[in-house]
Amino acid sequence: MRYLPHTPEDIAIMLQAVGLENMDALFSDIPDDCGRRDIPNLPEPLTEWELDEHMAALSGKSAVTGHDDNPHVVFLGAGRYEHFIPETISYLLGRSEFTTAYTPYQPEMSQGTLQGIYEYQTLTARLLGLDAANASLYDGASALAEALLMTTRITRKKKVALSGLVHPHYRQVVKTYLSPAGLELVELPYLSNGRTDVSALTAMEDLAAVAVQSPNFWGCIEGLAEIGDMCEKNGTLFITAFTEPLAYGLFRSPGDQGAHIACGEGQSLGIPRWFGGPGLGMFACRSKYMRNMPGRLVGQTEDKQGRRGFVLTLATREQHIRREKATSNICTNSSLCALTAAMYMASLGGTGIRELARLNYDKAAYLRESLQRAGFRIPFESPCFNEFVVEFPPGFEATYNRLLQKNMVAGLPLYPWYPELKHHYLLCVTETRTRSHMDAFVEEVMS
């Protein structure tokens, strides 16, 4: 079977049309150290059984938490979190009517899919304290970037402010989105207590939005109400981002603290970490702005017989409306992940989410205080959720590697993203970590 259908004659005609002599000229912009000029020396093909054996051997090299043959104790979060997932969710998601990527264009054929999305939107709006939620975006990073673009459409302004304590990967995605659009991005510094310094906002003119993550990348809870009041006075839209939505089971929701838009990653809501993806971009806003939301919005209605039904109420992308009026190019809605999150929130309920959030808070506080009593410095005094920063002594890299050999991951070193925080590590604790795990960790880092 040929995988490249073009003949040498076809290729020659196309190169002539674009004014190039050969294929090398077509790829001349790619640096030599990023491209490969020779044909790779691939091994001979394997049989089905040989391939199964090979894949099994590769998977055995992966470190997976909760695996009986290769158990790892991981104190690493930084945007992807390990939580227990009820077995009911795994069972329900295995039903064939749910595991489909079909886009619900025909409501008469898609009532189940539409209702599932509608329930997800309802639960998301309640959790985030806002009026309307869409049917999800790709992930937390793209949701934040889309939110900032949305504010520039609403305000007609070209400048936005972004906290330096937003997840570094999210900030990179935001820069990628905003740069081609000719928008100005101002990064806000941080205070010694681990929160964003917003003092400069009052002097900034023509600002479309301020985006702050809470809990921020260091796990610290931001003073959202104060920032919300400041934005209200300045006529600036306020975006609250997040990587851990379970925090709002314990702390006041973004909407209750003045946020116009709340967006972030929903992986914690029943979705496994899956080695980094896929994720769930959650997005909610006040009702006055929902016509500017990216993605799609499912609504509830009635038919001629008065029976309840569900339809795509808003779907403002190029496929549905004129391109110049589209609010984004979002082409999918991570429907299965959104349904997972809806099942998870419905299974726990408000009481269950609150109790789980409190358990996560208490366990992280236990490890934080244990390390502090052991003599390690906790640099930021602000309240934290799930994760916190600790400063270990110089040379801790050797201890870190020694713990890896013992199947224990001692958090995330912050130096690559914050060079001024050398020897600082971000540690995460969820309900999956036991007291014995944490006590053993403290004992190890002290030895």
Explain the overall architecture.
By secondary structure, the protein is of the alpha/beta class. It folds into 2 domains: 73-81 and 349-446, Aspartate Aminotransferase, domain 1; 88-345, 3-Layer(aba) Sandwich (Aspartate Aminotransferase, domain 2), CATH 3.40.640.10. Helix content is 34%, strand content 15%. The chain contains 11 helices and 14 strands. Strands 2-8-7-6-5-3-4 form a 7-stranded mixed beta sheet, with helices on both faces. A 3-stranded antiparallel beta sheet has the order 11-14-13, with helices on one face. Helix 5 runs parallel beside helix 9 (335-373). The protein is globular. The N and C termini lie far apart (60 Å). The model has no long low-confidence stretch (mean pLDDT 90).
Q: Quick gist of this model?
A:
The protein is an alpha/beta fold. Helix content is 34%, strand content 15%.
**SS strand fraction:** 5-15%
CATH architecture of the largest domain: 3-Layer(aba) Sandwich
CATH superfamily of the largest domain: Type I PLP-dependent aspartate aminotransferase-like (Major domain)
Amount of helix: 25-40%
Report the radius of gyration as a whole number of Å.
24 Å
Series of H and E elements: HHHEHHEHEHEEHEEEEEHEHEEEH
Number of strands: 14
Termini separation: 60 Å
Unreliable segments (pLDDT under 50, ≥5 consecutive)? none
Please tell me what the overall shape is: globular
Summed up, the helix count is 11
Structural class: alpha/beta
Name of the CATH first level of the largest domain: Alpha Beta
Main beta-sheet strand count, sense and barrel state: 7 strands, mixed
Summed up, the domain count is 2
Q: Whole-number average pLDDT?
A: 90
CATH topology of the largest domain, by name, is Aspartate Aminotransferase, domain 2
Give, in spatial order, the strands making up the sheet with the most strands. Answer: 2-8-7-6-5-3-4
